[in-house]
Amino acid sequence: MPSDNAAAVSAFIEGAPPGELAEVIADIQKLTVNEPKLLGSVTPAFQKYNEDQLSTVKLPGSGQNVLISPYNALGDGKYYDVGTQKSFTFDHQIQKASHVQPYTHDSEYSDLISSLLKSFSTHATEHYPSATYTVCPTPSNNTIALLLVSNKYSPTNFWNGRYRSTYLFVPASSTLSGTINVDVHYYEDGNVRLTTTKNVPEMKLEAGSAAEVVRRIAGLERAYQEELNRGFGRLSEGEFKGLRRQLPVTRQKVEWEKIGGYRLGQDIGGGRTR
What we know:
Blueprint: H1 2-14, H2 21-31, H3 43-52, E1 56-58, E2 65-67, E3 73-75, E4 78-81, E5 86-91, E6 96-102, H4 110-127, E7 131-137, E8 144-154, E9 159-170, E10 175-186, E11 192-204, H5 210-243, H6 264-268
Helix pairs in contact: 1-3, 4-5
């Protein structure tokens, strides 16, 4: 049973909606009050959530957000950020950074990474006002990862959303691939969640310059946004419309507070009683 509980708790953590990990943890603590050590046993689930969701954190003494991912991980809970040239320790459960130190990650593509970061920064600032992004070499050091996450939380209006994209560029072959994810949770008087994933198949770039890479990314994201808009239009005019309750033939609303006094045939149906 304990292993079953740990598996269930891990699933809850990894499936936490955008910006709601703390609430999920609080609910888990209430449900597992008799197993106070259970949360401490599922550290891998917290790490998977933060790395998959490209969680962001402010470094101590800095107002700038940095990003958590498997690509900028150094091991033992440590990560680095190319833009700030800092490394730090990250607590996956409370999502706090500590032990910030100067750090430079050596790579044969350092100049290209700097150019990509500059171009990617311009793209992110123009299209995603609240974005956090980074460009870094992958652990294999033969691929460059371009990562972006943009969060928008509105708990007072009962919704939270997250956009994230991951692109992998291989300089040796000038190829680009990636994924785009959108996750929105709406929970006023209900619980509705939209999750979408767009896989970007590997494509060959002509020059492989930083400008071309970011220009291609911008085109991919614009096309996906248009695709989502068309999809929402189809839902509104198709599936959602089909779910709506139609009015009676008389096209008059039923006054439910008076339902006990209606005569079914005459008052609701509009016909005559016999």
